[in-house]
Amino acid sequence: LLPPLPPPPSPQFGGPNEKEPLDVDGTCSAFDALRHEVNAFYSASAPAKRGGGGRKRDAEGKVVRGEEEEEGGMTREEIALGFLKVANEAMCRPIRSLTQARGFDTSNHVLACFGGAGGQHACAIARSLGIRRIFVHRYSSILSAFGIGLADVVVEKQEPCSHTFTDEYKDGILKRLEAISGQARHALSEQGFEPARIIVEKYLHLRYEGTDTGVMTMQPEDGDYLRAFEERYKREFGFTLPDRGVCVDDIRARAIGKSRTPPTVEVPRATSAAQPTETTRCYFEGGWEEVGVFDLPSLHAGSKVEGPALIMDKNSTIVVEKSCIAIITNEGDVFIEVEGGKPKIVTEELDPVQLAIFSHRFMSIAEQCGRTLQRTSVSTNVKERLDFSCAIFGPDGGLVANAPHLPVHLGAMQEAVRYQLRTLGDSWKEGEVLMSNHPAAGGSHLPDITVITPVFEEGKAVFYIASRGHHADIGGIAPGSMPPTSTSLAEEGAAIKSFKLVKAGVFQEEGVSALLTTPTGAPHATGTRNLKDNLSDLKAQVAANQKGIHLMGLLIKQYGLKVVQAYMQHIQDNAEVAVRDMLKEISRRHKLDEVGVLKAKDYMDNGTPLALTLTIDRRDGSAVFDFDGTGHEVHGNLNTPPAVTASAVIYCLRCLVDREIPLNQGCLNPVCIRIPEGTILNPSETAAVVGGNVLTSQRIVDVILKAFGACAASQGCMNNLTFGDDTFGYYETIAGGAGAGPTWEGTSGVHTHMTNTRITDPEILEKRYPTLLREFSLRKGSGGIGRHKGGDGVRRVIEFLRPMHVRRRTMRSC
Question: Which residues contact 175 (CB under 8 A, 6 or more apart)?
Answer without folding.
Answer: none
